[in-house]
Amino acid sequence: MEPDNASAPRLLEQLVAQAEKAGASDIHLQLKQPEAEIHFRLDGVMTPMVRHPFALAERLVGRVKYLARLKTYQDSLPQDGRINRQELGAQTDVRVSTYPTVTGEKVVLRLFREASVPPLDALGFPSGVLRGLRAFLRRTTGLLLLTGPAGSGKTTTIYSCLRELAGQRHVITVEDPVEQIVDGIMQTEVNEARGLTYAQAVRHLLRQDPEVLVVGEIRDEETARHVVRAALAGHLVISTLHAGSCRGVLERLCLLCPERNSVLSAIGFILNQRLLRQTCGTCQGQGCEACLGTGYHGRVPVAETYVVDEPQRALLARDGIATVTASPTLAEAGRALIEEGLTQAGELERVLGL
């Protein structure tokens, strides 16, 4: 017998509670006949959890929309909303996104977690990477660029760098959006609808006399030029740029900012990182209740770095960007994590294709 209408509110509360207990970042619900699918995003990976009859899933979606104050009758256009934690008996607020598909609506619930900014030591980087980061953060000028796909941990690394710098220097950020408030840091949020872009924010914020400028992302040529010039003008600058490798960062930055000599003079440190699922400590990867049968619990970073010092600048100027080689490479760093028992070969293949 199909559960009655009253079971939809209970089911929603149970799903959120289970997701929070498992450490999931998102709940995905895809309406489709004859059964709707529910997945959790665990440690960055979509994990199938349960299927429900279509009619019950429709009521579940209706309950989500009601609590998020969305139009319950609207299923042909995307909608966004938010559910207060008290209404679900949850630990966190929930952001709601709906989207129409050919089989029915797709609903994503993003769970917000109020976590303090971790210190650099707690990120899981090997000692060599930490030494390189800290050496750069002690500098007064230069450009630090982080790269990696969405979900690779770049933002967390930047916030940990901010924690390291807070209270020591005048630090200003421009972010999209501001994800965590860091005491002692002046933080700004991009608002493109009102005309405040990354490029405009950087240009004006330099008049605030920052010692350290953090730009959430270099998206266009104008932002790239401002970031490079700021690093050359006596500021320490931290930003992100989408590329697949340390060499790719330099290649893309030179495309965005054709003043190649300025780019080579400004850049000081490149960090290319990914996140690998960590082998579950309870079952050692065999699958258990603690890891919901996945064999993994938590994530560990794998990274490669490239330090641009004066000898490297001379080499780059003479022989070009093709000489850029990170040491150790992502693959080498990943294999070291496997040898330590922190992750498994299948995870390295999933993330890096190796």
CATH level 1 class label of the largest domain = Alpha Beta
What's the β-strand tally?
13
End-to-end Cα distance: 48 Å
Strand percentage lies at: 25-35%
**Secondary-structure element series:** HEEEHEEEHEHEEHEHEHHEEHHH
The oligomeric state of the chains shown is single chain
Structural class: alpha/beta
Structurally, the number of domains stands at: 2
Helix content: 25-40%
- In CATH terms, what is the architecture of the largest domain? 3-Layer(aba) Sandwich
Mean pLDDT across the residues is 93
Question: What is the CATH superfamily of the largest domain?
Answer: P-loop containing nucleotide triphosphate hydrolases
Shape summary:
globular
Strands of the largest sheet, in order across it? 9-8-10-11-7-12-13
Q: From the alpha carbons, calculate the radius of gyration and give it in angstroms.
A: 23 Å
Low-confidence stretches: 1-5
Q: Classify the fold: give the CATH topology of the largest domain.
A: Rossmann fold
Query: Total number of helical segments?
Result: 11
The major pleated sheet works out as: 7 strands, mixed
